[in-house]
Amino acid sequence: MPALPDLRAGILDAWRTNNRVTTELIQRLPPALWDLSVPDVPRRTIRAIAAHLHNSRCSWIRTLGREHGIPTPARVDQRGVPPRQLVAALKRSSAGMEALLQLGLDSEGNVPPSKGYVWRNLSLDVAHVLTYFVAHEAHHRGQLVMVARQTGYRLPNEVTGKLWWWKPEKSSVSKPAVKRARSLSGKDL
What residue ranges define each of the domains in the chain, with the CATH number in brackets? Predict the structure, then answer.
């Protein structure tokens, strides 16, 4: 029987691909869409959904990673964050998510338990953690496209087509994920 491949790099590449797809969608949303309300939910805008992606990552990094030394990025204002600031914030929270996955990979494939994790509805093995986060972001990417369509703005094919570009980019030789997460801000994210 052939030896099983080391899936560590694949786990991290899959997260990076997910982040790239999310970030590229955010970058390509037309400015006119950012303050559109979700039909029948006037307080929820495209901007708020987009900001939720980053803020949700921050909450999970704080909950699962803080006591293991992974710095929590600053949240963004869901009502006023400009697109460029959100893209920069997504870069920081992606580094934190990568550090969380790396922590799990370095801990025999499981993110170590933390006192802050009381929900306990998510299995902490790295495969489930990655799947949960990717599914969450895919759900909200779909929401962004759907709300645009419902409000009369059909996104161009060059925007929606990128949602399905899941070929990983070439991996670069990088610092360990925790160090990378810390280096993005200088101190705390």
Answer: 8-183 (1.20.120.450)
